[in-house]
Amino acid sequence: MACSDRITAAITSDGALFTWGDGTPGNLGYAQAARQFVPRQVAGGLAGQHATQVSCGPFHAAAITGAGDLLTWGSGLCGKLGHPSSSYTNVTEPRRVEALAGCRVLSVACGVWHTAAVAGERHSRFGILHTDEAGAIAKRANSSDFPVRPASSDVDARTESADLPEPGPAEGGWLFTWGGVFTWTEQQRDKKGAVTAQPDSNRGCLGLGDTLGRELPTRVNGDMATALVRQVAVGASFTVAITVDGKVYQMGATGASGRAKWEGAKSPELVRMLMCPRAGP
Question: Which helix (H) or strand (E) holds 160?
Answer without folding.
Answer: helix 157-160
